[in-house]
């Protein structure tokens, strides 16, 4: 059972974990041991509250397919158990990040004195650069 928050949990039957062979160098074990993990989680068929489902489906994340399935590949560690834990932690982090409300952006404008200071600095800088020219004799 994966605990997302105090009142939201996911049953093990909702998360499909499959062993696959990891990519990259691995020495003698690379062709024998399936230590990487593919985690699949179907958002539509899950028992998540509708709030979480809607927020997850609106995320622009490449790990979420068009069908609403989250696919996470974990192959960072050498053992299957640690890769499984890593994949579950990443799924939990993704679901939690969907629940966070984004602060609404309030457009701001610089004050009149800030604009005046900026223009004064530009003028001063331009005068300094003008003095760098060739000296007439």
UniProtKB/TrEMBL annotation:
<feature type="domain" description="Prokaryotic-type class I peptide chain release factors">
    <location>
        <begin position="21"/>
        <end position="37"/>
    </location>
</feature>
<dbReference type="InterPro" id="IPR000352">
    <property type="entry name" value="Pep_chain_release_fac_I"/>
</dbReference>
<feature type="region of interest" description="Disordered">
    <location>
        <begin position="99"/>
        <end position="137"/>
    </location>
</feature>
<keyword id="KW-0378">Hydrolase</keyword>
<comment type="similarity">
    <text>Belongs to the prokaryotic/mitochondrial release factor family.</text>
</comment>
<dbReference type="Pfam" id="PF00472">
    <property type="entry name" value="RF-1"/>
</dbReference>
<dbReference type="InterPro" id="IPR045853">
    <property type="entry name" value="Pep_chain_release_fac_I_sf"/>
</dbReference>
<feature type="compositionally biased region" description="Basic residues">
    <location>
        <begin position="103"/>
        <end position="137"/>
    </location>
</feature>
<protein>
    <submittedName>
        <fullName>Alternative ribosome rescue aminoacyl-tRNA hydrolase ArfB</fullName>
        <ecNumber>3.1.1.29</ecNumber>
    </submittedName>
</protein>
<dbReference type="GO" id="GO:0004045">
    <property type="term" value="F:peptidyl-tRNA hydrolase activity"/>
</dbReference>
């Amino acid at each position: 059972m994966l605990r997302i928050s105090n009142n939201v949990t996911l049953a093990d039957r909702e998360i499909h974990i499959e062993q696959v062979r990891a990519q990259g160098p691995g020495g003698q074990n690379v062709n024998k041991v399936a230590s990487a993990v593919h985690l699949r989680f179907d958002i539509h068929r899950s028992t998540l509250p509708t709030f979480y489902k809607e927020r997850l489906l609106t995320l622009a994340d490449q790990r979420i397919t068009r069908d609403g399935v989250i696919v996470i590949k974990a192959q960072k560690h050498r053992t299957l158990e640690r890769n499984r834990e890593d994949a579950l932690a990443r799924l939990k982090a993704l679901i939690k990040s969907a629940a966070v409300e984004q602060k609404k952006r309030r457009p701001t404008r610089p004050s009149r004195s800030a604009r005046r200071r900026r223009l004064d600095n530009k003028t001063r800088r331009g005068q300094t650069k003008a003095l760098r020219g060739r000296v007439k004799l």
